């Protein structure tokens, strides 16, 4: 552990710390170490990114009466530290790198190193006005498992491309065997994942609600459950934005640009876009009507599918919020004739 402190004689830091009711810390993460800084203070810490280092970090934060901790997402290297901090009841905010760099740009800060980044993240943490609830910790191992299943699917696609361009029959046979083996593993892993989810009654009930929506097959329903824990607790606009399916304006002065989707959770967006094709052609009457209307209005196939994918997540969000399974059409009110 490497700790540096200036004590109470650091007047500028003391005044700034006194102005804040909530003491905030920032953590810059790398594979081997964590650099930590306090907002409004020159005190800093460096520990190893290990279980022992995390314990030292917790003790140091408690000693300085830190309540809120910000940490930058770093390819998964931050996950163990985040889990431990949340277990210790700290309020943890995980920033995307683009958020931290945008904050630095706003303050015209060009210099960059690990210690400076930790201080910058601490300032970002203190500036946050709205703090979202921490995601369900049960979903984290499911997310890792689902990513592995997705990666197997990607490997199968790569092998199929190699198979198509390979003229050698012996090598073709090898690629076919590998594809069959990976496909078998993928089916087994997905079955195990669903079984693990169904051990939790509340998660199983939520999965069934998502699965009830026409066009949301079981793989899509699992992806939404795991990769969008906010489902059913947010607005339709927020649901579209989180999935990266919300169209954004590109207007300035007299310029009126085309609206485009951007951002969001990439793997989740891919799952919804994949589901939108069969849903809008066969399984969901609402999406079928939407697709036909957009095509008739001159919209392209891909643009119509994006709109259907957005409509699909909006429907699913409403179903989960309501807590009752989806029905293709609302029940008709029985008419009573008076004679």
From TrEMBL:
GO terms for molecular function: DNA binding; transposase activity. InterPro entries: Transp_IS110-like_N, Transpos_IS110, Transposase_20. GO terms for biological process: DNA transposition. It comes from the Bacteria. Signal peptide: none annotated. Residues 209-291 form the Transposase IS116/IS110/IS902 C-terminal domain. Residues 25-166 form the Transposase IS110-like N-terminal domain. Coiled coil: none annotated. PANTHER family: PUTATIVE TRANSPOSASE FOR IS117-RELATED (PTHR33055:SF3), TRANSPOSASE FOR INSERTION SEQUENCE ELEMENT IS1111A (PTHR33055). This is IS110 family transposase. It comes from Bradyrhizobium ottawaense.
